[in-house]
Specification:
- By secondary structure, this protein is mainly α.
- It has three helices and no strands.
- The chain has helices spanning 4-30, 34-63, 72-100.
- The protein is elongated, with a radius of gyration of 16 Å.
- The N and C termini lie far apart (50 Å).
- The relative contact order is 0.22.
């Protein structure tokens, strides 16, 4: 069973790193460095995957007998993850737009 505090911090850290890399990718694309932007987005995917895997573990635990308490920090972690996933999707679209120009 995954410790709740450890799981929450892993989600926050990895989602935050993914989001940061997405914004780095946008800056690179704006400067005309499309290849670098794509590499940064790929790197962001790895961090998002780690955060999502931890979220999945928590969901699996919650579905069984190991019910997880809903805490403010858990909501915060979920917010970080969802924000980073949205940033990733939008960043991909914006990089594509920069690539067209």
């Amino acid at each position: 069973m995954v410790a709740l505090e450890e799981a929450v911090m892993e989600i926050i850290v990895n989602a935050g790193q993914s989001r940061s890399l997405c914004f780095e990718a946008l800056r690179s694309a704006r400067e005309g460095n499309i290849d670098e932007a794509k590499l940064l987005l790929k790197e962001a995917d790895g961090y998002a995957r780690q955060a999502h895997q931890m979220q999945t573990k928590l969901i699996e635990q919650d579905a069984g007998e190991g019910r997880q308490p809903m805490t403010l920090i858990m909501v915060h972690a979920q917010d970080h993850l969802m924000t980073s996933l949205l940033a990733r999707e939008l960043s991909e679209e914006i990089v594509q737009l920069y690539q067209r120009n």
